[in-house]
Design a protein that fits this description.
Layout (H helix, E strand, L loop, with lengths): L10 H22 L1 H6 L3 E2 H8 L3 H13 L3 E4 L2 E4 L1 H6 L9 H9 L6 H10 L4 H4 L2 H7 L1 H19 L13 E5 L5 H9 L4 E6 L1 H11 L8 E5 L12 E5 L7 H14 L5 E7 L9 H13 L7 H10 L3 E7 L4 E7 L2
Parallel strand pairs: 4-5, 4-7, 5-6, 7-8
Antiparallel strand pairs: 1-3, 2-3, 8-10, 9-10
The protein binds S-adenosylmethionine.
S-adenosylmethionine binds next to helix 9 and helix 10.
Length: 338
Amino acid sequence: MKLSRPRVEDAAVLDVTLNLFAYPAMLVAHRLGLFRQLAQGPRSLQALIETMQLARRPLEALLNTAAALGFVARANGVFSLTTLAEDYLLDTGPAYFGYFWDLMLDNGDTYAAPQLERAVRNNSSQAYGEQDIFRSHEQQLEQGRRFTRAMHSLSMGHASAWPRLIDLSNHRVFLDVGGGSGAHAIGAVSAWETLRAVIYDLPAICEMSGEFVVPYGLGARITSHAGDMWMDPFPSADLHFYSNIFHDWTPEKCKFLAAKSFDALPSGGRIVLHEVLYDDDKTGPFAAAAFSVVMLGWTEGEQYSGLELRSLLEQVGFRQTQVIPSAGHYSLVTGIKP
Ligand SMILES: C[S@@+](CC[C@H](N)C(=O)[O-])C[C@H]1O[C@@H](n2cnc3c(N)ncnc32)[C@H](O)[C@@H]1O
């Protein structure tokens, strides 16, 4: 055989392999309490070996991976948490993400290659043994609570960011459709004094939403309304908000929801969608493509582009539609009913 040199280097193909290990390693570090240990102050490797009762080799591999991903700083043999880890990986932080990682740890099947292959071949979700996840939550309350807590984990940081990017001063009632823990209702009413909010979700989830809202002292301004968005009417509101909802469903079902909101809103009412968006030509970003793969395992939905969601809102009658980039990988898509 003649030796021929590849035209490009192999980093991208090796990265696919390496990331199979690096990302779950952070879930393992989280489960072992590594970030909690470092919350007590900078620690040497030796001190961590002793307190965590782990051998040097695996512990250092976890720490160095955490350092490479920006969660831990290593200086002169001493490890400490970065701001990123303090804010997102400690349950005392403003936007603790750990419950989302717990959900991933509990449902490792959804990102294991055999299940992913089945999801791809059959175009069917795999979580909870291929059951409809939201119906399961109505029957398995602890499962519903863990999921709702995970969504709260994902959403609280964003809920403190997006409400400042859009003028809601003319609105009075914020309907958080599929609102779960009410994370976004908490963010919206905290930013806009004149707003009150209603969390609209399935009955079992509405019953637990108070657990999340009350600690913020917002029980008087945020109520819940149990209903099924496919068949029950929406309570009266002049602002409909959907976060991580459209990506759960097919384009036809998204259009149904947009039209239902259009019919329910008064003239001047607003719809806001909060999603991780594809670029309009779907060449990226990576986060939207990867999130679509997550949706394969959990739901019947996928990520959409800003162009797709704007056009969907316009098809049902909304005007003045716009896309507003928000925190991290998230954006808002909004429109007004004329
Ligand atoms: C992916 S979670 C999003 C939660 C929240 N909006 C957030 O971003 O944190 C989807 C939510 O939709 C709710 N949901 C699913 N089907 C529903 C239905 N038929 N009617 C009302 N809510 C529903 C679920 O219970 C869940 O709380």
